[in-house]
Design brief:
Number of strands: 10
Distance between the termini: 25 Å
Order of helices and strands: EEEEEEEEEEH
Largest sheet: 5 strands, antiparallel
Helix content: under 10%
Structural class: mainly beta
Radius of gyration: 16 Å
């Protein structure tokens, strides 16, 4: 909750997956966040944040990044500061994309993959991608600003058959 106790404040999206077996190319996943204008919440993203790109105002950042899944627990973390995000934005969609280097990979090919969304010590969402085993990318959460200006979370687990670049362009365009 933000300082007023209304809506979301600072949220983390955390991602984990097991590294590739010995001799196979590295399994590389990315958390991706697309930010949409308040006046066009299903149009083109205003900006997209992932390991190589941060938000222009610093309100959405990658605080941990892995290119191979090696490490303990959640090896990739994105932080979203909704309490500081400009009123010009009304929707943020967060997803996960699997890099396709070394051949096609889907969530069904991964072991121990999972994502959680937390605010402080409170878990808001958890998923293990078993609902989208044939997908190469998936949305996990949609954050929207309500009429009072407070941010709300809606679970949005939906699979895509896209490479990371294609996924970034299409991940938030469909209404559910």
């Amino acid at each position: 909750m933000n300082a007023d106790g209304d809506g979301l404040g600072k949220v983390q999206v955390r991602l984990r997956w097991d590294p590739s077996p010995y001799g196979e190319p590295a399994r590389h996943l990315d958390i991706v966040a697309a930010t949409y204008a308040a006046g066009d919440p299903y149009g083109r993203p205003e900006y997209v944040v992932y390991h190589e790109h941060r938000s222009p105002d610093g309100t959405i950042t990658m605080t941990r990044h892995s290119e191979n899944g090696v490490g303990l627990g959640y090896v990739e973390v994105m932080e979203l500061e909704f309490d500081r995000l400009s009123a010009a934005y009304g929707r943020v969609v967060v997803g996960v994309a699997i890099h396709q280097n070394g051949g096609p990979r889907t969530f069904g090919d991964l072991s121990h993959a999972g994502v959680v969304v937390v605010e402080g010590y409170r878990q808001l969402l958890a998923d293990d991608f078993t609902r989208v085993p044939d997908a190469t990318a998936a949305t996990v959460a949609e954050f929207t600003r309500d009429p009072s200006g407070a941010w709300r979370l809606r679970e949005l687990v939906r699979g895509f058959d896209s490479n990371p670049e294609g996924f970034m362009a299409e991940m938030g365009r469909v209404r559910q």
